[in-house]
Structures are given as C-alpha cells and as structure tokens.
Amino acid sequence: MKKIIINEMQKGLLFKNGKFVKVLEPGKYNLFRGMEVEPLFLKNEIVPVKTSLEVLLNNDLVKDGIELIEVGDQEIAIHYIDGNYASVLRSGKHAFWRDNTKHEFKIVDISTPYVNSNIPNYLFNKLPADLFVKVEIFEYQKGRLFINKKLVELLDSGTYYFWKTNDKVEISIVDTRLMQMDIQGQEILTKDKVALRINFVCNYRIKDYVKIMTEIDNYTEQIRVTCQLALREYVGKYMIDEILENKDEITKFVVEKLKAKEKALFVEIVEAGVKDIILPGEIREIMNTVLIAEKKAQANVISRREEVASTRSLLNTAKLMDENKTLYKLKELEYVERICENVGNITLNGSGDILAQLTSILRTSSDKN
Question: Rounded CA gap, 305 and 299, in Å?
C-alpha cells in the first residue's frame, strides 16, 4: 500500500489494473496494489495520458463535472476563463473541469481569410502567430489585397489581420507620396555628331493604384524609357550650340511627351527638368578656350573704351583752359603744388611775380632732367 495526496487545485483519475475507476477530489488517499492515480490541474484542459477523453465522457458522474466543446475542421475556439482570455482551441474535442470556474468559448470561422469584425484586435497579440497574417499600411501608403493571385480590393492605411487558410493572401504596398525618378543619360549624338549625355529628373504621383499594376508592366521603366526616347529625338535635331543655348526647350519637349502618356501610365507628371548636360572632355576644352578668348576680347573692348573716354576728357579740359585764363592758372597752380611736394628747398628773388619765377624754375629743372 502507498499514499498519495491530491492538491487543492487538482483532481485525480484513479485506475485499477489499468482501468479507469473514478475521479478523486483533493485529499489524501491510500492506494493498494494495482492502483494508480493520474493528477490533473483544474485550470488546464483535460488531456489524460493513461486513458482517452471518450472513456471519461462515458462515465456519467465525470461527464456532469466537465465543460465540453467541439471545434470543427475550419474553426477555432477562443477560450475564456472567468471572462479573461485563456487559450485558443484547434479542431477536435476539448474538455475542462467546471469546479467554481466559468468557461466561455467563442467559435470563429476561419474557412476564409477575412477576420470577423467582432474579434477585437488586442486578441491577436495573444493568439499563436501561425493562425493569422498581420499587415500594417502607413498613412502615405495603399495596400492592394490579392487572394489566390486575384486582386480583391484596395486597402487604406491601418492595421489588418487575415486568417491563414488554404487561400493565399498577399499584400502589395504602393506609395502615395510624390515620387522622384532620376534618369541617367546615355550617350546621344547631336546633329553635328557630338556625343553628349543629359541627366534628367522627373517628379510624379500615381493616380490609379490598381490599374497601374494590373494593366501595365513596370510603369517606372516605361516612364524612364519615355524620357530617354524624347531626349534622343530632341538632341538629334539640333547642333551642340543650339542645345546649350536652349536648355529650357529640352525640358518643354520632354514634358510634353510625358504628359501625352500620363493616362496610359496612370500617373501625374508634376515636374520635370534637365539636371546636367555632360560634354565630352575634348569639347569642354575647346569651349573653355573659346570662353577665355571671348572674355579677353571683352576686356580689350572695355580697355579701349576707357582710353577713348580718358583722351576725350583731356581734350575737353585743354579746350576749357585755352578759353579761360583763370582756369589755366588754377591748373598751373595744381601742377606746381604736386611738384613741390617732392622738392626740398626753392630760392626765389624778392622782386617780380613769385608764381612766374616758381613756374620758370620748375620748367627749367624739368627741361634739364
């Protein structure tokens, strides 16, 4: 004989010679030869090891103390204990002890991917991850929902949950913001056979998020090719000098081509323009040489213009002094003053015109030098 204790939060299944006899309540028991007890916790699902659930249910006394729930193949049951989430039950029979515990079960159909609105979102933080797919779509995005490769609907921003079923769920995210595309230039020959490259930038916004995926293939590449073809068409018509002088005309031409394809590409062209025009190295050297020559020529013209203006000013001054003796004398005094600034001592006689003597001395000194 041996003793066994069933704790307060347990029940025991008593077996004699391998056959189920009855359920033991909490307490202390003496077991004789051939007897065994399998303890089970009250809050856990009844999953006996030494027997089957069907054997227990065949016992009327046991059946009356058990809460039984049957879950179908394409269903799950959300199990609540005393109003709180406890677990999720898959297909099959599930049994729980009733003792002073309130069990509730919510049967959920998962035959389709769509989650019923009566399932609160917080539960998905508790459910096993292999039961559902979570999708988050931000404020600046749209979501294209595909079920079994078929487009079903367009989803706005938010958090979405879908059951994992035999139907394959896929979400394609598309950006609703203003997009920018940089078109790197390929070598293009001008009319005078100069190979240049033009880098172009295009800002666009998607207008139809469904058709842009279902009716055209790779819309970004089509926008890029449209720009490149338009650039080739324009550049091939003009000389290199004409292209450099009319940079804005390139933008207008390409934008017109893009605008003509807006509806077919399901986009709106907001802005576009030439970013860079890259010339071959030898052409850049030639143009730099031409530019330097032009600037030198401009500098020479300006220098000659200033010389002419200076000579004209001297001529006008000379005419005024010839016509006005007083002005001549003032100019002569100014001339004397400038010379005297560089002279140490000057000796003058006491008689006669001092200014005339000073002028004569300065002239004589100037002639000797």
Answer: 10
Residue 27 identity (one-letter amino acid)? G
Question: Alpha-carbon dihedral of residues 67, 71, 75, 80, nearest 10 degrees?
Answer: 10
Contact of 17 with 32, CB cutoff 8 Å: no
Distance CA 108, CA 77 (A): 6
How close are the terminal C-alpha atoms of the chain, in Å? Answer: 149
Instruction: At 308, give phi and psi (nearest 5°).
Output: -60, -45
- Give the whole-angstrom CA distance, residue 6 versus residue 38: 10
Q: Which amino acid is at 290?
A: V
Q: Are both 264 and 294 inside the same structural domain?
A: no
At residue 277, the pLDDT reads 85
pLDDT of residue 292: 65
Report the alpha-carbon distance of residue 94 to residue 79 in Å, rounded.
Answer: 10
Residue 314 pLDDT: 74
Q: 265: domain CATH number?
A: 3.30.479.30
How many angstroms from the chain centroid is the CA of residue 180? 10
Give me the domain span that covers residue 221. 179-277
Cα–Cα distances in angstroms (integers) from residue 149 to residues 128, 144, 334, in the given order = 26, 11, 101
**206 and 236 together in one domain:** yes
Q: Tell me, what's the pLDDT at 283? A: 62
Which stretches does DSSP call E strand in the chain?
A: 2-6, 10-16, 19-24, 27-31, 35-41, 66-71, 75-81, 84-89, 92-97, 103-109, 132-137, 141-147, 150-155, 158-163, 169-175, 179-183, 188-189, 195-206, 267-278
pLDDT tens digits, 297-339: 777 777 778 777 777 777 777 777 777 777 666 666 676 666 6
Last-in-domain residue among 214, 242, 277: 277
At 348 the pLDDT is 54
Q: Which residues of the chain have pLDDT under 50?
A: none
